[in-house]
Design goal:
Helix content is 40%, strand content 14%. By secondary structure, it is an alpha+beta fold. It folds into 2 domains: 157 residues, Creatinase/prolidase N-terminal domain (Creatine Amidinohydrolase, Chain A, domain 1, 3-Layer(aba) Sandwich); 276 residues, Creatinase/methionine aminopeptidase superfamily (Creatine Amidinohydrolase). A hairpin with a 7-residue loop joins strand 2 and strand 3.
Length: 475
């Protein structure tokens, strides 16, 4: 597979070979998008996915749309994930139909074209070129595919669709009429578990997305200073993404300083950073339609205070211990349990938890879960409950501790269903003198972990996270 990790190297990765990362600021990423080229080998991957899906399809049909003609992401057009995962085809306004039909199990429509569209958007592949490159059994025109879809819907057969494409779903329901609404099922029922286990091509894209993101975060460490705006750091991040061939972020960049570091999904990124602030960045480059998701927290002035350092080290040590739990055979929740135990003990020692056995006191500081699948979506598809870890999964690990300015006054409302008001009041009174030393400190550290047969590989290992390294880069 040209420019992709050869299969034998991927096998070495999955058997847990030592990673070359370690504590280094030399990030292996180049300005070379040639690895995005659609090759015969990548065609085989898409063919295998379609084959597995069709084997489980029964008598129904899969009907997917690349995306609406007018749909776009924050920066540019992007095909819907399920459509791309099964076809590798990127043009807007196209449809894919899959079935057990032995003569036409895979139909792909050519996008609508007229002279105006050619002038504004450029030419697209014709039917013959699509057949050769993407391998459908047949191609049909835009008008023909709409008529074909209408006829399939009217058969009353089960139709698997992408329910996130709400406009198309409404079109299909109108075709079916009131009696046909129950025939539509979500394509995720057939595909989501395939997407959980990553193939060599997917791993390479995710590794490059992580390397680009690590470069962006390291660039921020070099540029960040008090009296700069959060959006200046966002510009460094997303400018680096573009510089290395990432067309867009995989999700809206979170770049929050001072009190904003304690807001989980803060997105305005407009505050003027001050001396003594922490800056929390939760960002991810998208590459080949696969995203990274890395969080780093750094001191705006280049030096952690004693209080910031205590919380940072507590989060970091809990994260490291949790990553060690991320091996095949362990349960999905094992890493989270390790984090809870270590952070709980650390906060008890700091005088911030009065009852070590109280889940709500720990939740007062930690707020969110610590892991999710990663892939084409930042919170990727797949089943979590009672799940055993398997080689090929990519999972985030992201503990955090947050000292929100208004948390003490909100505690009664937050935990009224978990504890008696008198118990909450006693907790607030006892921790307030200590809590005030940490107000507006928010620390989250997140890495992207590939499960291997022998353990795991940290795909985001090149993004510095040791205090010593961060402070050295920021000098």
């Amino acid at each position: 597979m040209k420019n992709f990790v050869p299969l034998f190297i991927f096998i070495l990765i999955l058997t847990g070979c030592n990673n070359p990362g370690g504590r280094t600021w030399m990030i292996p990423v180049s300005i070379d998008p040639s690895d995005l080229a659609y090759t015969p080998s990548s065609m085989e991957s898409f063919e295998e996915r379609r084959s597995q899906l069709i084997d489980s399809l029964g008598s129904g049909y899969v009907i997917l749309r690349s995306a609406d003609q007018s749909s776009s992401n924050r920066h540019e057009f992007r095909p819907n994930n399920y459509f791309y995962y099964l076809t590798g085809y990127e043009d807007r306004g196209s449809y894919a139909i899959l079935s057990k039909d032995p003569h036409a199990s895979y139909t792909l429509s050519t996008p609508p074209q007229n002279i105006r569209m050619q002038i504004y958007d450029g030419e697209v592949l014709d039917a013959e070129e699509i057949m050769e490159k993407y391998g459908p059994d047949q191609t049909v025109t835009y008008r023909e595919v709409r008529a074909l879809i209408d006829s399939l819907v009217k058969t009353g057969a089960s139709i698997y669709i992408d329910r996130s494409d709400r406009t198309f779903m409404r079109d299909l329901q109108e075709m079916a009429g009131e009696t046909g609404s129950t025939q539509f099922k979500h394509i995720g029922e057939l595909v989501d578990e395939l997407r959980v286990i990553k193939e060599p091509m997917e791993v390479e894209y995710m590794q490059k997305a992580c390397n680009i993101t690590a470069m962006a975060l390291t660039n921020v460490m070099r540029e960040c200073k008090p009296a700069m705006y959060e959006f200046e750091m966002e510009a460094v991040i997303e400018g680096t993404f573009l510089e290395y061939g990432s067309a867009m972020p995989g999700f809206n960049s979170i770049v929050g300083s001072g009190p904003n570091s304690t807001t989980l999904h803060y997105e305005p990124n407009k505050r003027l950073m001050e001396d003594g602030d922490l800056l929390l960045m939760d960002v991810g480059a998208e590459y080949g339609y696969y995203t990274a998701d890395i969080t780093r927290t750094l001191p705006v002035n280049g030096k952690f205070t004693a209080e910031q350092g205590k919380i940072y080290e507590l989060v970091l040590e809990a994260q490291k211990a949790a990553i060690e739990q991320m091996i095949p055979g362990h349960m999905f929740t094992d890493a989270n349990d390790t984090i809870k135990e270590m952070i709980n003990q650390g906060l008890v020692e700091l005088g911030l938890i009065t009852d070590p056995g109280s889940p709500w006191q720990l939740s007062f500081y930690t707020i969110h879960g610590t892991s999710h699948f990663l892939g084409m979506d930042v919170h990727d598809v797949g089943r979590y409950r009672d799940r055993e870890l398997e080689p090929g999964m990519v999972i985030t690990i992201e503990p955090g501790i947050y000292f929100r300015e208004k948390a003490l006054e909100q505690a009664q409302e937050m935990f009224k269903n978990d504890a008696d008001s008198a118990v909450i009041a006693e907790f607030i009174e006892e921790i307030t003198p200590v809590y005030e030393q940490y107000v507006n400190i928010g620390v989250r550290i997140e890495d992207d972990i590939l499960l291997t047969t022998g353990g795991n590989i940290n795909l985001s290992r090149y993004a510095p996270k040791e205090i010593e390294d961060i402070e050295q880069i920021m000098k």
